[in-house]
Amino acid sequence: MSTEEFASVRYIVDDVQAAVDFYTTHFGFTVRMNRAPGFADVVRGPLRLLLSGPGSSGSLATPPGTPAGRNRIHLAVEDLDAEIKRLDQAGVPFLGEAVSGPGGRQILVTDPAGNLIEIFEPAQDQAQ
């Protein structure tokens, strides 16, 4: 898959290798490039996650003190309860409880640097 076929998101992380391990172990990402401690590139389907560590160009372009905000990557799953159980058994901490809305159910976790990840199960009548 060429880079034009990916939707890329950059996350600024404190420890590139810890982030690579987190995303590959818990969420099925595969490594395209790992130049830890400065940078890594992991993918899951069409999502390309750029992990920029201290001193990387992506990190340097972000002014110190810039808050992470509430933006997050969105990972769709078929069975949220099974994912919650799997992640809980692996020691991944959750931010609150699962919530339901008109489009489905979701829960939030953070990566080792505090970046948000939304685990989402669409409502039965919703397409992913």
UniProtKB/TrEMBL annotation:
<dbReference type="InterPro" id="IPR029068">
    <property type="entry name" value="Glyas_Bleomycin-R_OHBP_Dase"/>
</dbReference>
<dbReference type="InterPro" id="IPR004360">
    <property type="entry name" value="Glyas_Fos-R_dOase_dom"/>
</dbReference>
<dbReference type="InterPro" id="IPR037523">
    <property type="entry name" value="VOC_core"/>
</dbReference>
<protein>
    <submittedName>
        <fullName>VOC family protein</fullName>
    </submittedName>
</protein>
<dbReference type="InterPro" id="IPR052164">
    <property type="entry name" value="Anthracycline_SecMetBiosynth"/>
</dbReference>
<dbReference type="Pfam" id="PF00903">
    <property type="entry name" value="Glyoxalase"/>
</dbReference>
<feature type="domain" description="VOC">
    <location>
        <begin position="5"/>
        <end position="122"/>
    </location>
</feature>
